[in-house]
Task: structure prediction
Amino acid sequence: MKLAPDWKRVLRRAWSVRLILLAGILSGVEVALPLIGDAHPIPTGVFAGVSLLVTAAAFVARIVAQKEFNDE
Result:
């Protein structure tokens, strides 16, 4: 494996990377929920399910050709 020449730019702009980060955050929330006890009305497994959907979207975003990154 070899890094792309513009890997830093890809990390900042690719939707697949953004969605993977979001899935990681959702997984962390799912792990943290039992620590706060019954202080939340969210059923068990909701964040895990949403994380699954976001991970699937990241997979699709990774294989779909994205528009050329615009400079800010």
Observations:
- Helices lie at 7-13, 15-32, 46-63.
